[in-house]
Amino acid sequence: MENLLTVDRLTKAFEIHHLGHIIPAFATLSFSVAPGEFLLLSGPNGVGKSTLLRTLYRTYRPVSGHVWYTLPRGQGRIDLARAADIDIALLRRREIGFVTQFLTARPRVSAEDVVAEPLLQAGTPLQEAREEARHWLETFGVKRDLWAAYPMTFSGGEQQKVNLARALIRPQRLVLLDEPTASLDAQARGALVARLADLKAGGVAMIGVFHHPGDVETLVDREIRLQPMEMANVA
Ligand SMILES: Nc1ncnc2c1ncn2[C@@H]1O[C@H](COP(=O)(O)OP(=O)(O)O)[C@@H](O)[C@H]1O
Ligand SMILES: [Mg+2]
């Protein structure tokens, strides 16, 4: 099967101007992901796992290297490291998801509408989108009384559940996960793993860092272990 993503000699470092040195994150990293594959990203704290996911999502631009992403329907491939911002924005809306443990809640939007929004953007009628949203809120264990309430006032764990429901309601082609379960209860973690298994079976590719890697053991096809690098002085 053709790869969905091919990472080629990707290098990222942070230049800390006022200290006159460079913090290397990773260098000449190459790997690929096919549809339906699940890659576990591992390594010690501060090794660059979040930085790698953010570089793939183009929150950060790499120093060098390529991130080839295969477009659907034979439209060829695009280098996410160099693509125009407008193309990145479209891909984020339709094809590439990023799941963290944090919800960006907005004032006066109910939990069910926060979760339904990605479906509404994709053209699903309002009632159907809300029903689907309630299904996922229930699945992730958000109490029924909270569905019409504003997530801004929720506990951290409740916000995480709303966040997962929203992030995974609409199947995408590639999902990047950065410790989405860090402080979730066992029931919600179980629901998440079940959802990821379904997405994987449906051909969604995933790259993720997990606080409890044992949770996703049965899903993992390959592991990428990042190694610590030395700090370099700017010449
Ligand atoms: N925006 C940034 N500016 C400067 N340094 C950063 C930035 N983001 C991350 N770093 C540094 O890059 C390294 C890797 O961080 P990170 O990717 O968050 O690690 P991990 O997710 O593996 O714990 C750390 O040394 C961190 O301090
Ligand atoms: Mg991290």
Automatic annotation (TrEMBL):
<feature type="domain" description="ABC transporter">
    <location>
        <begin position="5"/>
        <end position="232"/>
    </location>
</feature>
<keyword id="KW-0547">Nucleotide-binding</keyword>
<protein>
    <submittedName>
        <fullName>ATP-binding cassette domain-containing protein</fullName>
    </submittedName>
</protein>
<dbReference type="InterPro" id="IPR027417">
    <property type="entry name" value="P-loop_NTPase"/>
</dbReference>
<dbReference type="InterPro" id="IPR017871">
    <property type="entry name" value="ABC_transporter-like_CS"/>
</dbReference>
<dbReference type="InterPro" id="IPR015854">
    <property type="entry name" value="ABC_transpr_LolD-like"/>
</dbReference>
<dbReference type="InterPro" id="IPR003593">
    <property type="entry name" value="AAA+_ATPase"/>
</dbReference>
<keyword id="KW-0067">ATP-binding</keyword>
<comment type="similarity">
    <text>Belongs to the ABC transporter superfamily.</text>
</comment>
<dbReference type="InterPro" id="IPR003439">
    <property type="entry name" value="ABC_transporter-like_ATP-bd"/>
</dbReference>
<dbReference type="GO" id="GO:0005524">
    <property type="term" value="F:ATP binding"/>
</dbReference>
<dbReference type="Pfam" id="PF00005">
    <property type="entry name" value="ABC_tran"/>
</dbReference>
